[in-house]
Structure formats: structure tokens, C-alpha cells
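**User:** My hope is that you can spare some time for a protein that puzzles me. I have put the entry right below:
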Amino acid sequence: MTTLTAEPVYWSTAQKIAFRFFMIFFLLYMFFNPNGVFPYSDSVQAIYLQPFYKLVPFIGAHILHLHKPIIIAITGSGDTTYDYIIILLIFLMSIIGTIVWSITGRSTSNYNKLFYWLTVMVRYYVAITMISYGLYKVIKLQFPSPSFSRLLEPVGNLSPMGLAWTYMGYSKAFNYFTGFAEVLTGLLLFSRKTSTLGAIVGFVVAANIMAINYCFDVPVKLLATTLVIMCFFLMLRDAGRLINFFFKNKEALPSNLTPHRFKVKWKNTTLVVIKYVLIIYTLCFGLVDAFAREKQNGAKAKKPPLYGIYNVEAFIKNRDTLKPLLTDTIRWRRFMISRGGSAQIQMMNDSIRRYNFKTDIKKRSVIAYTDADTTHKFNLIYNLTKPGLADLKNFKGINKNDTTEYLVLKGVWKKDTIEVWMRRLDPNGFPLLQRGFHWVNESAYNK
């Protein structure tokens, strides 16, 4: 008969206090950050967190005396002032709850059953979170390929996060590698028999994510750090076995994986059904959602009219042809139209300005405006032509014998009349996109 690691009958005072704290902390964290773990949990969260949307700004203004008001909005950041105050509240409530629980629960000898159920909840929270993020890497949604503006923007102008996104987005293979590692973590954590391995793999994967978020200023530091802590917590159950195996070269007894069950059969059956429904929902819904988003705004999204990258050969403002001077803050240098219909204009000083760009093919017209000011819209007409078919008496920099197709924009731009002649460039002509993979390198190609 195989001897299993026995559950301790008596816990030390330190173990009980630590468990009480993490029990409260993890439950509160999952309450405030369901992270889409359950179906429609994000919608439900927006309802039950309404009181905190008022409480947190009050705490910031009247207790913490913050200089700036706390704005609660979707900004793409998980490290807002609101999020940090929520973490502070969770921490304080966990300490208070631990003190009260330690006073009222002094006679309790162990928390084996509660510890088991807490590990189940933490396992599933980490698993579903990892799978969700992993699928968005495998389908290549989180880190899209470098856009035209990113390829043309000087490296020094990138933010640390932009540099990390470009680095990750360049390689499909690396996206697959990191994505499958996260999905594997989730699948291992779903099963009790592989949960320890899942916690170890998850700890390494989450630690790598946390390192990137800290080192490249990615605003998901709180979640990444919590995932590392959760994976470490899951490893604590087998801490003795892991230390014996990896560090002491001693025998490690099999872990006791006997589940804590209810006495009533229908409750156990219900839990099993919920488990598999949740796993199927996570995998199926995650894949369906990822594939749908890929067609909407991912690599398989439909390319908009005029999609491409253009070099500005001639720029006329109010009948005056502007020379391509690097000191000019008005003249365009390059013009790009990306997936989704957005347009980016690279100025002569290499700065990038972004616009929404709506194209009407029948009227051969476009409407451009910024997200910051949707009331002021620029109306332009466009034409696709070749220099040999146009009257170029006003343009000195264009070769009339050039057979390349040009995009011509005419209209009023910021109260000035403009006429812009732009030559289409090869979007795959960048060394970054051409280099590819080589098994054999006689010398390092590092430019």
C-alpha cells in the first residue's frame, strides 16, 4: 500500500494566522477582480461594485488627501489609482479580518478542509486567467504585428511598453510559445493530480509576465504580482515534498490528493458538473471569442480601402510647395492607413499623429478626425493616379515617367488648402520583416 503525505492534525499558530490572512485576501481579490472567470462576471461586477466607485474617490480626496481626483474609467490600465486603493482596502480588511478570526477561532486545531477549498478556488482563478491570456497570444491578438507607424517610428520615441509590444508582436512563434505555456498552466491546474506541476509552471510563467510588466512599465503589475503570489501559495501545500526532492535529495512521499467531499451525493455531483461546464466554457468561449476578434481587428480583419504605407513626394499648402525640411512642423513625411481604417501621419520631425479615417469609395472622399476632437472633421477627396497621367507643372520633385501608383489627397486641412502626392511603398520592405529565421549564420546580422 502506498503511503501518502498525511494532512497535519494540528497547525502552528503562525500557519493558522497566515492561512486566515490569505483566505480573506484571495477571496476579496477575486471579488473585486473576477477577471471574467465566470460567465457574465464582468457585467455583474459593474453592478455590485457601484458603492466602491463612490467610496474610493471619497477615500482618495478626504482620507489620503490626493492632489488629483480619482477617475474611474476603462483606460487599458490595471494599475490605476483606483486599483491601488482597492488593493489597500483589501489588505486592510484582510488584516482586520485576520485579527477578529484569530480571536474567535483560537480553539480550531487545523483548517485542512478550508485550505482544500481555497486551493480549488485559487487554482481555477489562475487557470482561467492564464487560459484567457494564453488564447489571446496563440491567436495573436494581445501582441499584433508591428503596425506601419511602429515600423517607421524611431526606437527612441517608443515607450517602454511600446517597445515590449513590438518585441512580442514581431514573432508569431514566440507568441505561440508563451501562449501555449499559459494555456498549459491552466490545463494542469484544472486537475488535482497535476495541480502541483501546474503551480510550478504557472509560477515561472507568471514571474516572467511580472518581470516584463515591471521592467517595461506595463500597467498590469498588480494582477501579474497576484498571480505569482497565488501560484506560490498553491506550491506551499507540497512545500515539504518539493524541498526534499529538489534540495535535500530525500524521498518525497506521494501527495494526498483525496478530495474533501460533502456527505450528500447530489452536492458532489453538482460540483463535478459545474467543474466541467466551467472548463468547457473557458476553452470553447475563449476560442470562439478569440477567433471572432481576430476577424474584427486582428490579422484576419478586412483591409480598408487605400490600405498601405505612402511616402509624401510633394506637399502643397495654399499653392505653396513645401520643401522636405526636417525642421518643418507642417509638412507630412509619410502617410499610413492601417487595419481598422485608422490613419497615421508621420511629420518631418518623425512624430506620429493619429486620425480616424473614413473612406467613401463611391465619392472618392475621406473624412479624418481625432478621438480627442470629433467635432472638427477634415473633408478630403482622393485619387489614385500615375505621374505620366497628371499635370505636374506645380511639382518639381516627381518624375513624370514614374509608373508607380500615387495617392493624391486634396482638400482643406486645418483651415489650409492642401494637395499631397504620395507614392505607395512596399509594406514588406523593412529589414525587420525580411530577415526571417536562419539556422546557419556565418556572422551576426545585428543592425
User: Anything to note?
Assistant: The chain has a mean pLDDT of 88. DSSP finds 13 helices and nine strands in the chain.
